[in-house]
């Protein structure tokens, strides 16, 4: 790393020549008119600007590069430096001080503007402390109109008009010939302008023309992981850089791929096609029409690929461990990604089908999105072996232990590779039980605190209810299935309604608990009014079912119908807790735990 202080003029020349460009992961320039005027004021006062950070390319950019906004040319150049921090400042200065065109910017409300920037010579000389007021921006036609009429208050459409207004055009500040020509016309208007110009030249123009930019230069050998870390630390006011954006720029800059295919690799398009295909077939994996990152994310997909890639390398003796940390993703070669992406696409499709078989069909009902990453990696590695009855049973048990034991609620970086290796090892008859299965535990009193979808176990128990054969209380001709759950807007409803619980002073924790909720269609939920003994006959009648048969339908929700017909909340709560715990035990393949009470 080296520290340099080149002149602003030299930096802007590098930008124009394409010697300094942006890595493609940098977002678009977006400063508004006021910030540009304030920045120019800072330069004219020779105040410190702040450090700019660049990465040397060594003649071969590690990322696809693009010119700064306004510096585009017909013939692309290979940059010597990539601008990591300082894009907003340098783009603003380049456009305002170096381009012979109006600057495309916005007002405070985000409305698009095209502006030329001037400095009021008298204000700049007389009141340096108020330099912000001396920086003026005018429309693209260089005419300022009165607010309430079309009257032109200020016309700067030619040099004479600029001189008479004593407004110096900042876009010519680095063009010595044009500055001298403008100065000659200015002083010819009035002999008194000589002194004013001399003071302006000393107090403003010399500051701008000699202004230094403090610049950190990172060596070309800096790793992608280090570049990402540096960018995140220096770009504190911007949107955080993510791995996907960095890989997008890296893959797009892959010369070998471009030579072979006569085009650069477009990672965002590849991911968009994969995500839309998966989400269309399996809505639980997200709603790309809302946001492409909704549900299964690009980071999830990259982590799954990294897990498979490092697992292969470990088997070949090329790495010591299976991993999917940021550095593993950033060091993922394009050929490996290109080879593994179709396999992981198919693996996530299998995961989508697996979730459907667990009666998890909506993104909002998915207990842990992160748990899908190692599951997809295992599918990609084992292939059809995951469909063998014994292995599928073990995978299903692992999945429910992760959900009901809430094993994926904390850090997952170490759990991902451990689960991949241990699940694969579990394919052997004498394989070790994965930690996620061995360590998972469900405390019986957890039922009392499961009240919202914020908990994975909450979502999991209701999926188990549907999976074990629950029948809707209105559309009751068949058990719930993934299709009818979506079609009939099945959601979670309170068995003993909220108002009933309030009138009978049922403790809020129990009234809101998962024990007092079940999965029903929107139509059935509309009839859950008043006491259960009142609404059950109504539902039976509305659905065309005899009362005694309707009790059998209620029982499919692991509810004793007799407790509802008696409006006995306590008996209902105790019996349903017992039955729900049995569902949990069956899914996890182990007993539940009772919390030990300690003496106070």
List keywords for this structure.
600 residues; alpha+beta; 28 helices; elongated
Map the helices and strands:
Blueprint: E1 2-4, H1 8-17, E2 20-23, H2 33-44, E3 52-56, E4 65-66, E5 81-85, H3 87-98, E6 103-106, E7 112-120, H4 121-126, H5 131-134, E8 135-139, E9 143-145, E10 152-155, H6 159-165, E11 167-169, H7 176-189, H8 193-209, E12 215-218, H9 224-234, H10 243-252, H11 255-261, H12 267-281, H13 298-315, H14 326-330, H15 334-357, H16 372-382, H17 389-404, H18 415-425, H19 435-439, H20 456-467, H21 482-487, E13 491-494, H22 498-503, H23 508-511, E14 517-520, H24 522-525, H25 532-542, H26 547-555, H27 561-565, H28 569-588
Parallel strand pairs: 2-5, 3-12
Antiparallel strand pairs: 1-12, 2-4, 3-5, 6-7, 7-8, 7-11, 9-10, 13-14
Your description of this structure?
With 600 residues, the protein is of the alpha+beta class. It is built from 28 helices and 14 strands.
Structure described in brief:
By secondary structure, the chain is of the alpha+beta class. The chain is 49% helix and 10% strand. Strand 9 and strand 10 form a beta hairpin.
Tell me the distance between the termini: 61 Å
Instruction: Let me know the average pLDDT.
Output: 91
Largest sheet: 6 strands, mixed
Basic shape: elongated
- Helix fraction bin: 40-55%
The tally of helices reads 28
């Amino acid at each position: 790393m080296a520290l340099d202080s080149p002149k602003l003029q030299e930096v802007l020349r590098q930008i124009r020549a394409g010697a300094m460009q942006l890595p493609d992961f940098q977002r678009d320039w977006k400063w508004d008119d006021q910030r540009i005027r304030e920045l120019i004021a800072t330069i004219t006062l020779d105040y410190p600007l702040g450090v700019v950070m660049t990465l040397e390319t060594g003649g071969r950019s590690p990322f696809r590069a693009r010119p700064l906004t306004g510096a585009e040319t017909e013939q692309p150049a290979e940059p010597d430096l990539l601008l990591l921090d300082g894009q907003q400042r340098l783009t603003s200065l380049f456009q305002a001080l170096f381009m012979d065109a109006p600057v495309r910017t916005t007002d405070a409300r985000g409305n698009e503007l095209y502006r030329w920037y001037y400095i009021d010579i008298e204000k700049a000389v007389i009141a340096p402390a108020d330099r912000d007021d001396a920086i003026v921006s005018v429309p693209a036609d260089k005419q300022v109109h009165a607010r309430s009429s079309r009257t032109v208050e200020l016309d700067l459409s030619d040099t004479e008009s600029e001189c008479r207004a004593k407004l110096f055009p900042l876009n010519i500040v680095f063009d010595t010939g044009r500055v001298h020509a403008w100065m000659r016309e200015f002083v010819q208007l009035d002999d008194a302008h000589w002194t004013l110009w001399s003071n302006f030249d000393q107090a403003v123009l010399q500051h701008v023309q000699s202004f230094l930019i403090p610049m950190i230069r990172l060596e070309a050998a800096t790793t992608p992981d280090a570049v990402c870390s540096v960018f995140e630390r220096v770009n504190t006011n911007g949107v955080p850089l993510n791995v996907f954006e960095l890989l997008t720029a890296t893959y797009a800059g892959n010369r070998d791929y471009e030579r072979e295919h006569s085009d650069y690799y477009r990672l965002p398009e590849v991911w968009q096609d994969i995500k839309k295909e998966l989400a269309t077939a399996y809505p639980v994996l997200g709603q790309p029409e809302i946001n492409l990152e909704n549900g299964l994310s690009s980071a999830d997909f990259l982590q799954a690929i990294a897990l498979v890639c490092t697992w292969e390398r470990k088997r070949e003796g090329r790495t010591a461990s299976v991993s999917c940390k940021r550095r593993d993703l950033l060091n993922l070669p394009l050929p490996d990604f290109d080879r593994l992406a179709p396999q992981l696409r198919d693996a996530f499709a299998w995961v989508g089908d697996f979730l459907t078989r667990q009666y998890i069909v909506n993104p909002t009902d998915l207990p842990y999105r992160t748990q899908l990453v190692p599951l997809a990696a295992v599918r990609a590695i084992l292939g059809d072996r995951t469909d063998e009855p014994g292995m599928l049973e073990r995978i299903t048990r692992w999945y429910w232990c992760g959900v009901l034991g809430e094993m994926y609620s904390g850090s997952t970086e170490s759990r991902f590779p451990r689960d991949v290796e241990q699940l694969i090892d579990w394919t052997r008859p004498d394989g070790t039980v994965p930690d996620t299965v061995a360590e998972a535990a469900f405390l019986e009193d957890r039922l009392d605190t499961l009240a919202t979808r914020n908990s994975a176990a909450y979502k999991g128990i209701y999926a188990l209810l549907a999976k074990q054969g629950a029948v809707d209380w209105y559309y009751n001709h068949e058990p719930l299935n993934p299709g009818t759950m979506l079609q009939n807007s099945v959601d979670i409803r309170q068995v003993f309604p909220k108002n009933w619980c309030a009138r009978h002073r049922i403790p809020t924790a129990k009234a809101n608990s998962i024990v007092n909720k079940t999965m029903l269609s929107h139509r059935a939920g509309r009839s859950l009014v008043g006491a259960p003994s009142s609404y059950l006959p109504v539902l039976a009648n509305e659905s065309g079912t005899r009362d005694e048969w309707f009790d059998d339908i209620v029982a499919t929700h692991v509810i004793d119908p007799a407790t509802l017909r008696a409006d006995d909340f306590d008996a209902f709560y105790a019996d349903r807790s017992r039955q729900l715990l049995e569902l949990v035990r069956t899914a996890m393949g182990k007993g539940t735990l009772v919390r030990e009470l300690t003496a106070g």
